[in-house]
C-alpha cells in the first residue's frame, strides 16, 4: 500500500493546474532573489514641470530648482536660489549651487547627504524655472525698452532676434551703427556692430547677453 500513492502523485505532477499552483505559491519567495522591480522601488520624479534647460546649463542666482532624493519623500523640496546663489535644502540647510550645472549640483548634494545622513543617496536636481534675465534696447527700434531673454535661450540670443523682439528697425534706423554696452568685472565693454552686414550675408551675427544695452543708431541721411 505504501507504493500505491506514487503513480497518483506522479500523474498529478503533469496536471497544468497543479503545476501552476506550485509555481504561484512560491512566487513571493522567488521574487526577492530575482531582478528588483525598479518601477515600484523608486518614487517617480513628478515635481511640477521642469524647464527645458540647454545642455551644460549653469545655475545662477534666482533660478528656481527642485531637489528630490530617491526613496526619501521627506527630503523633497523646491526653492529659488537667493542673490548669493544658495538654496535651502532639508537637513543640509543653505547650500551654494550657483555656478554648477544640474549634474554637478546633484553630485554636490549627493556628497553632502552621504557624508552625514544617508547611505548611498541618489539625488536629482531639476530646473523648474529660469531667473529673469533681461537686456535693454534703445534708439531706432519699434518698441524701445527692457526685454526678458526667451526661456529657450536664457544665456543669450542673436542680435537680430533681439531687434525683432523690440519691433524691428524704424524707418530711419542705421543697422550698420549699433552699439552694445556690456557690464564686466573690469568695467564696461563697448562693441560696435554692423548688423547690416549680417543681413546681406544671411548668416552670423552678434550674441546679446543678459544685462546688455543695445543702442540702434539713426541714419544720417
What would a concise description of this structure say?
By secondary structure, this protein is an alpha+beta fold. 25% of the residues lie in helices and 27% in strands. The chain has helices spanning 5-12, 16-25, 27-31, 38-41, 102-116, 159-165, 195-201; strands at 64-69, 77-80, 86-89, 93-96, 123-129, 134-139, 145-148, 157-158, 173-182, 189-193, 207-208, 213-218.
Give an overview in words.
The chain has seven helices and twelve strands. With 221 residues, the protein is of the alpha+beta class. The chain has two domains: 46-129, wza like fold (2-Layer Sandwich); 134-218, Outer membrane lipoprotein wza domain like (Outer membrane lipoprotein wza fold like). The chain has a five-stranded mixed beta sheet, with helices on one face. The N and C termini lie far apart (121 Å).
Amino acid at each position: 500500500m505504501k507504493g500505491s500513492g506514487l503513480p497518483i502523485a506522479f500523474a498529478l505532477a503533469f496536471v497544468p493546474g497543479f503545476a501552476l499552483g506550485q509555481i504561484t505559491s512560491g512566487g513571493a519567495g522567488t521574487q526577492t532573489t530575482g531582478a528588483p522591480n525598479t518601477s515600484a522601488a523608486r518614487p517617480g520624479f513628478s515635481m511640477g514641470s521642469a524647464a527645458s534647460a540647454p545642455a551644460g546649463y549653469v545655475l545662477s542666482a534666482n533660478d528656481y530648482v527642485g531637489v528630490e532624493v530617491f526613496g526619501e519623500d521627506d527630503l523633497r523640496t523646491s526653492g529659488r536660489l537667493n542673490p548669493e546663489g544658495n538654496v535651502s535644502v532639508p537637513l543640509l540647510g543653505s547650500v551654494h549651487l550657483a555656478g554648477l550645472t544640474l549634474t554637478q549640483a546633484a553630485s554636490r548634494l549627493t556628497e553632502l547627504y552621504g557624508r552625514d545622513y544617508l547611505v548611498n543617496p541618489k539625488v536629482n536636481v531639476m530646473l523648474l524655472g529660469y531667473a529673469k534675465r533681461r537686456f535693454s534696447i534703445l534708439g531706432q527700434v519699434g518698441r524701445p525698452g527692457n526685454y526678458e531673454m526667451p526661456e529657450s535661450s536664457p544665456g543669450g540670443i542673436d542680435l537680430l532676434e533681439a531687434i525683432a523682439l523690440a519691433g524691428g528697425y524704424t524707418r530711419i534706423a542705421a543697422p550698420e551703427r549699433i552699439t552694445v554696452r556690456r557690464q564686466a568685472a573690469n568695467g564696461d565693454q563697448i562693441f560696435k556692430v554692423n548688423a547690416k552686414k549680417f543681413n546681406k550675408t544671411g548668416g552670423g551675427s552678434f550674441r546679446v547677453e543678459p544685462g546688455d544695452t543695445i543702442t540702434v543708431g539713426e541714419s544720417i541721411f
